[in-house]
Amino acid sequence: MNQKTTRIIYLVATGLLSVLMLLSAGMYFFNHQMVADTFTRLGYPTYIIYPLAVAKILGLIAIWSKKSNTLKEWAYAGFFFDFLLAFSAHVNAGDGEYLPAIIAMVLLLVSYNLEMRLDSGPAT
């Protein structure tokens, strides 16, 4: 796959991941009661809703910025564990609402993999 194609797929995957995270954070802020009910049903404390929303926004900023590769790695790791725990919680609850976590995980893995390819430069 050439650099241009890799870059386009990276931008699409990262863009879709960003939309998903911004919608999620928006729900956490503006639909708090519904999210709190879901968190309670899944066994998570509701006091983490607002900090998690802020963390999602900060994670996106870290991924899109070129300031710190270490911070970017931590953001990708944080999203990975967020999606893994979301998937696990929905499977354990048996509510069948785990598909968004799978989609987010796929987008995250594609974004991360292609980010690493783009940072390493063209293959020789």
What is the structure about, briefly put?
The chain has helices at residues 3-30, 32-42, 49-64, 69-93, 99-120. It is built from five helices and no strands.
Describe it for me?
- This protein is an all-alpha fold and 124 residues long.
- It has one domain.
- It is 82% helix and 0% strand.
- It is built from 5 helices and no strands.
- The chain has helices at residues 3-30, 32-42, 49-64, 69-93, 99-120.
- Helix 1 (3-30) crosses helix 5 (99-120), helix 3 crosses helix 4 (69-93) and helix 4 runs antiparallel to helix 5 (99-120).
- It is elongated and about 50 Å long.
Write the layout of secondary structure elements.
Blueprint: H1 3-30, H2 32-42, H3 49-64, H4 69-93, H5 99-120
Number of H- or I-type helical stretches: 5
Give unreliable regions as ranges: none
- How many angstroms does the end-to-end distance come to? 13 Å
Rg value: 16 Å
Count of DSSP strands: 0
Structural class, from helix and strand content?
Answer: mainly alpha
Main sheet, how many strands, which sense, barrel?
none
- SSE string: HHHHH
Q: What portion of residues is helical?
A: over 70%
Averaged pLDDT, please?
A: 94
Morphology call: elongated
The number of domains is 1
Which percent band covers the strand fraction?
under 5%
